[in-house]
Amino acid sequence: xxxxxxxxxxxxxxxxxxxxxxxxxxxxxxxxxxxxxxxxxxxxxxxxxxxxxxxxxxxxxxxxxxxxxxxxxxxxxxxxxxxxxxxxxxxxxxxxxxxxxxxxxxxxxxxxxxxxxxxxxxxxxxxxxxxxxxxxxxxxxxxxxxxxxxxxxxxxxxxxxx
Length: 162
Hints:
Blueprint: H1 17-29, H2 39-58, H3 62-82, H4 98-147
């Protein structure tokens, strides 16, 4: 960057051309950006919030109610047509659902099989370490039983002391 030979009006160090042109740009735009919103912006925001809250308190309009009712009817008709989640509470028959029961049992068996496979994997990975731990524990028990020094006991010197 080149330095200019001009001294700033406030007195001090000379400025670079880039900083001089940047300050001219800011001066041309007017004062710096506003830090706080103006009173009109605050009032407009407050009015929007008041309207939104009042609309919430008033509840849905008649059009919104009719639209919700239409969508709810379509949703219920689709549920009845496809037979999902049928139970006496939603208009379905109270009879026994063989398909649903088979599906539930199948899901349970699939979960049991997955858990069994995971358990087999864990056992295969940990078996050598479990076997080693068991062998070490058995060896320690044998060592304690056979290599323990003989305990002290009273040996009578005469037969009448027994």
